[in-house]
Amino acid sequence: MNKDQKVENIIEVKNLHKKFGDNIVYDGANLTIKKGEVITIIGGSGIGKSVMLKHFIGLLQPDEGEIIFDGHNISHLKEEEYIPVRKRIAMLFQGGALFDSLTVGENLAYPLREHTTLTEEEIQKRVSEELALVGLSEKQNLMPSDLSGGMKKRVGLARATILEPEIILFDEPTTGLDPYNTRKINEIIMDLNKRKNITCIIVTHDMESAFEVTDRIAMVYRGKIIIEETKENIKKTDNEIVKGFITGEPLDS
Ligand SMILES: Nc1ncnc2c1ncn2[C@@H]1O[C@H](COP(=O)(O)OP(=O)(O)OP(=O)(O)O)[C@@H](O)[C@H]1O
Ligand SMILES: [Mg+2]
Predict the structure, then answer these.
(1) Residue 27: is its pLDDT beyond 60?
(2) Are strands 9-20 and 23-34 parallel, antiparallel or unpaired?
(3) Is the pLDDT of residue 95 over 70?
(4) Contact 47 CB / ligand 1 (< 6 Å)
(5) Please, what is the average pLDDT of the chain?
(6) Is 48 in the pocket of ligand 1 (CB under 6 A)?
(7) Of 10, 30, 149, 197, which residue is most buried, by most CB within 10 angstroms?
């Protein structure tokens, strides 16, 4: 993050309550995302990290509390009112969520055809640029089934960024990847943040990546965000739950 820029909160989660039947996932969580930062959300499996991300783009709505995006309360919009929000906030789903019946190039062209009035020539130019950014120029005409898992993730990332969102949500971007693809994804995230000033919100179990790419780290535990701090301060925390999680001790959730 550029330290000189005026810090502004792009997303604010205020007193989030969310349950599914008897399963209380959040009961009063607060979280602030600053414009232009890279923040990682950590926490045990099934604790509510993906649920948090889904609230940012209206795939889930709070039972109580508010999600403020760029100063607007987006907690209870109608389905069509989330369309402009989702153009500004892209989500990279686990596995990349590519269309299996379309080539890599067509997967990338798809959002441009749906949401822009670019000419065919301009679309092809953008597709080539984005593929080059993720280091997959020579894969344009292959089908997703011909790619490795790491490559699929990189294509998914290129597709998520092609409409130039302001925020990208990454749900476990490096889980299950080999060291080369992990490094590649981390480099792309850092590059998107620095060069395009895209705010990046990452959910991961991969603490090494978290400490490498992030400015701040937030941890979910028992329905709340129990810490939200710079990575330097996280390393120094005396909160036993956070310390234990970072060093890989089991949590009793
Ligand atoms: N649409 C849904 N309907 C019912 N329960 C749900 C729904 N979405 C999530 N849950 C439940 O909410 C809890 C939190 O789920 P979530 O997917 O956010 O966990 P997570 O922290 O992302 O875990 P993991 O690290 O394993 O991906 C889980 O108990 C899950 O079963
Ligand atoms: Mg999850």
Answers:
(1) yes
(2) antiparallel
(3) no
(4) yes
(5) 92
(6) yes
(7) 10
